């Protein structure tokens, strides 16, 4: 393991990315919902052609 | 932080409150019209005394779509710039009052002609429907008044910039400026059609009107109009809600970036309201639809940013698991709860918007009540619940009062009532629309056509939902009246969020107005010049005016 890279850096310089797993899941769900709605109406459109 | 004062100056507060009073009076009257509409459309009720359905519907659309929104937004923004960029100068405040009175007088004139039945042309006033000239003249005053207020805000911003050279302006002031620039650019279109087409035509100076040009100018204004409604809600989400929940803003730059993208992308897209309009070459419709879909980018940026703000806050409070942060949010605080519910409703609203904007799918829903269902989610829920949530701290802040626990409870109930009513009414509208039920029509079985009979159960559900919504309007009016006149005296905070430590520094480029306005103008010219010339050069003879009510 190369964790040694971190050991010398002073605390203040550690740039920690916030953990945003829930945000990722939420936006993925949002994207899925958008696509689902669009495709549903698209099939309705095709059915009525 | 760069926040100027903590409290909005009392004189600025008066100006803001004047706007807010008009907004809520409009809500009361417009809501009553809405109730009548759903009752008529259920087939169980008829308007008394020969009142036309279209008089009621015009009242509803104008009061809620145009008056409530514009007044609340300008009032809120005056408070926001005063809070974040310092007390308004006497000159700026004076012009703010001039703007307010012009808008109010204009509204009164327009409302008068609607109510006496001389202007049942709906809030979009499509030619060749012809209203009394007073209707258009009143609307002109509203727009001119809003311009004056816009310039007052610009002047205030310029003064701040001069006093703080090289500094990034306060976020809420920046956002207010973006929204007023958007409004100014787009309302030039509606001003042009009203001044050069509708007023001369309705006064009888000219006989005929170029219908396609008037509709195109209207929608050049009409789409950005919805962003003019939405951006103040985004201001509250980005810059205020994080403070209310006790957290920090995810990123200041991301917020500014999304506002700039809305400024650039929300104007050259009006054709997506005219997809079935003959006389516009499909190439130009296609181009504008592509630009419309670009607006997905800042919208999803906003969604991401909100989720991230909530999750970061929840995790800082020790939340674990994928969604544990949800439980840490202040569900009992109406200042958070109402806008949050508004955000949730924006998910189906956005999905519906993608359907509307796609040419083929638009043919499924065009001019059906689906569209009405759609904007009662976007405007009448997302935006309006966010405004209600803001009113719960803004009004007591400005009137020197505090919201009691009981009123907060009532506001939570109000939000729930609104949600239930809207789920019924809007879902019914969406489904009936997919079955072909038209918008903007009173009850009819169309000679007992089987298709029209299918709509009736949905129209009943619509009436149930609409009645519940009307109860919601009564509740919010009780709360607002309490906060303005009866709540206990005290100090209420005007919350303004700070940026998270990890966020990058905001670059100054977002305030390079020449650049952004320049890009916006170029895109507008690309999207509109050729089709517009085409409309004028190949115009059919114009149309005479019609009064069909
Ligand atoms: C009690 C609450 C409400 C009810 C029952 C209600 C009901 C309705 C109905 C039934 C229609 C369509 C009628 C038709 O097309 O024939 C309509 C249209 C409309 N509503 Fe509402 N609404 C309510 C609140 C609101 C709010 C709060 C807003 C905006 C802030 C709003 C904005 C509009 C607009 C702009 C239209 C379009 C008018 C037109 O097509 O010309 N409504 N409403
Ligand atoms: Cu639009």
Strand content of chain B: under 5%
The largest sheet of chain B, given as strand count, sense and whether it forms a barrel, is:
none
Q: What name does CATH use for the topology of chain B?
A: Cytochrome C Oxidase, Chain A
Helical content of chain A (DSSP H or I, runs of 4+):
55-70%
> What structural category arises from helix and sheet content of chain A?
mainly alpha
Relative strand content of chain A: under 5%
CA radius of gyration of chain B: 23 Å
Percent in helix of chain B: over 70%
* Shape field of chain B: globular
Question: What would you report as the Rg of chain A, rounded to the nearest angstrom?
Answer: 22 Å
SS-derived structural category of chain B: mainly alpha
CATH class of chain B: Mainly Alpha
Following the backbone from N to C, one meets helices and strands of chain B in this order, namely: HHHHHHHHHHHHHHHH
Shape of chain A: rod-shaped
InterPro entries (chain A): Cyt_c_oxidase_su2a (IPR012538)
Pfam family, one (chain A): CoxIIa
Protein name (chain A): Subunit I/II of b(O/a)3-type cytochrome C oxidase
Keywords (chain A): Membrane, Transmembrane, Transmembrane helix
């Amino acid at each position: 393991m190369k964790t040694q890279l971190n050991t010398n850096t002073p605390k203040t310089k550690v740039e920690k990315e916030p953990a945003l797993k829930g945000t990722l899941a939420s936006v993925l769900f949002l994207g899925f919902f958008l696509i689902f709605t669009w495709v549903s109406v698209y099939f309705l459109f095709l059915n009525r052609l | 932080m760069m926040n100027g004062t903590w409290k909005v100056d009392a004189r600025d507060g008066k100006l803001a409150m004047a706007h807010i009073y008009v907004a809520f009076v409009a809500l009361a009257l417009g809501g009553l019209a809405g109730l009548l509409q759903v009752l008529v459309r259920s087939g169980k009720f008829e308007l008394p005394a020969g009142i036309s359905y279209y008089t009621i519907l015009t009242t509803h659309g104008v009061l809620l779509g145009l008056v409530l929104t514009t007044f609340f937004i300008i009032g809120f923004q005056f408070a926001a710039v005063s809070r974040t960029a310092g007390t308004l100068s006497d000159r700026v405040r004076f012009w703010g009052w001039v703007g307010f009175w012009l808008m109010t007088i204009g509204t009164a004139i327009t409302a008068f002609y609607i109510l006496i039945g001389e202007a049942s042309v709906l809030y979009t006033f499509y030619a060749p429907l012809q209203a009394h000239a007073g209707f258009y003249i009143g609307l002109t005053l509203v727009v001119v008044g809003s311009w004056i207020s816009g310039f007052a805000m610009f002047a205030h911003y310029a003064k701040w910039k001069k006093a703080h050279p090289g500094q990034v302006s306060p976020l809420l002031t920046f956002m207010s400026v973006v929204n007023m620039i958007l409004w100014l650019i787009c309302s030039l279109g509606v001003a042009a059609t009203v001044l050069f087409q509708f007023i001369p035509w309705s006064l009888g100076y000219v006989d005929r009107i170029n219908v396609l040009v008037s509709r195109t100018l209207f929608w050049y204004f009409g789409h950005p109009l919805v962003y003019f409604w939405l951006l103040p809600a985004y201001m509250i989400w980005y810059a205020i809600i994080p403070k209310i929940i006790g957290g920090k803003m995810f990123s200041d730059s991301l917020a500014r970036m999304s506002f700039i993208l809305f400024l650039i992308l929300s104007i050259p897209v009006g054709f997506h309201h005219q997809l079935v309009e003959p006389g516009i070459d499909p190439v130009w419709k296609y181009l504008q639809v592509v630009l419309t879909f670009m607006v997905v980018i800042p919208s999803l940026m906003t969604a991401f940013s909100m989720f991230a703000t909530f999750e970061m806050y929840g995790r800082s409070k020790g939340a674990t698991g994928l969604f544990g942060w949800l439980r840490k949010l202040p569900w009992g605080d109406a200042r958070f709860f109402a806008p949050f519910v508004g955000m949730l409703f924006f998910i189906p609203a956005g999905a519906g918007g993608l359907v509307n904007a796609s040419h083929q799918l638009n043919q499924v829903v065009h001019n059906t009540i689906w569209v009405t269902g759609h904007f009662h989610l976007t405007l009448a829920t997302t935006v309006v619940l966010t405004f209600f949530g803001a009113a719960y701290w803004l009004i007591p802040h400005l009137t020197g009062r505090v919201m009691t626990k009981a009123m907060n409870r009532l506001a939570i109930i109000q939000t729930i009532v609104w949600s239930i009513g809207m789920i019924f009414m809007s879902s019914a509208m969406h489904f009936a629309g997919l079955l072909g039920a038209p918008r903007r029509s009173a009850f009819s079985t169309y000679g007992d056509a089987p298709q029209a009979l299918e709509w009736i159960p949905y129209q009943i559900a619509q009436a149930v939902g609409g009645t519940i919504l009307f109860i919601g309007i009564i509740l919010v009016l009780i709360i607002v009246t309490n906060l303005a006149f009866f709540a206990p005296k005290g100090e209420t905070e005007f919350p303004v969020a700070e940026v998270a430590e990890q966020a990058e520094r905001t670059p100054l480029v977002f305030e390079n107005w020449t650049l952004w306005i320049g890009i916006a103008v170029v895109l507008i010219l690309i999207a509109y010049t050729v089709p517009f010339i085409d409309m004028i050069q190949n115009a059919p003879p114009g149309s005479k005016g019609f009064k069909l009510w």
